[in-house]
Write a structure and sequence with these properties.
Blueprint: E1 14-19, E2 22-26, E3 34-36, H1 38-46, H2 52-62, H3 71-74, E4 75-77, E5 87-91, H4 115-128, E6 132-136, H5 146-155, E7 159-164, H6 172-180, E8 185-190, H7 195-202, H8 207-220, E9 225-230, H9 239-249, E10 253-256, E11 293-296, E12 301-303, E13 313-314, H10 315-318, H11 326-333, H12 353-361
Parallel strand pairs: 1-4, 5-6, 5-11, 6-7, 7-8, 8-9, 9-10
Antiparallel strand pairs: 1-2, 2-3, 11-12, 12-13
Helix pairs in contact: 4-5
Length: 380
Amino acid sequence: MNNLEGDMTTMHKLIVSPFLGEYVVLRPGSPGGLKISEGKYRELAEAASSPSWFTDAVSASWGYDLSGSSFAETVLIRPESPYGYVRATYELNLGCNYECEHCYLGLKKFEGLSWPEREKLLYILRDAGVLWLQLTGGEPMIDKLFPEVYGLAYELGMMLTILSNGSRLANPKILELLTTHRPHDITLSMYGATEASYDGLTRRRGAYRLFTKGLAAAREAGLPLKLSLIVTNTNKDELEQMQAMADAWGIPHDAFVNMSPTIYGGPETLPTQSMEHLRKRKPFTGCHAGHTFFHVDPHGMASICKIGRDPQIPLMDEGVEGLTRLGAIADSLLLRQGGCTGCTLSGSCGTCMPLVTLYRKAKSPLRNYCQHQEREEVKA
């Protein structure tokens, strides 16, 4: 297991990495980045000290002075990967300390891999080429191995983003970890503007107080934050108030308004939809799921995304080679099928096929996911 209080104090400050046929320089916890040529990437990979052009570029971009520091300890050069993946999400654990009425995860069991298996998984992600890794759950920060997962992923040169409810952000150990080795960003779900609506939606007394305490601690520490404003029937009258609060805090925010069935196709989340806030989706023209991006669940099962979870690939058994099958799986899952086959309007549909499949399993009305209201209802 990583020595988080020892090894991480001398960890890299810059990452040089291949990225979708190009080469980039990134600084963990800082915005922006640099594109460099393949020749300069090769030069850095073989360098014993920082070339002057690199020292100047880093100083101009981030105000960071490389002179006097060990190049090998300060700059992590990531090798090229033959697999072509650059982004992934990792669900550490489906467990959560809230019981939100809209949650798409359904039954949230506290289950996950042991540390040796998680360590193996993170090396698989590194070998696949994953540069951007999103840590999610459930609530990732209540997972007992969150610090170890975060620490090793950071050590392996991944730019980390976190999806959280913020309830553990004021925990001193977590706060120290995140401030010492900063994530790219943390997106916090906000469930209401008042204690009554917030605790009502999460079905946990004290949830609002935990959120505001964690938010205050993170803001004081200068952590890079975003807010996802969750809008359901419970708090729909507080959207403008939530937006005003986010603006006052100076935190970027987006409203999350379209509720989906559970990952098992369960309908229990659908009544939480605020129909007046249901947003028309942009036409779905394809995505990179399964080709440059993938999702891993708490058991190390890889799928094209959080929604299209079946078929899955057991990474603990097959290793990084198993990911070579994901592209074909993605192509088959994203094809229009079933009740959408032959629809003359499918070219402007805003819902991907895996999500349509879940809506059908949940026997959802078409109005929840199909923007073409003139179509007849599809029977599951």
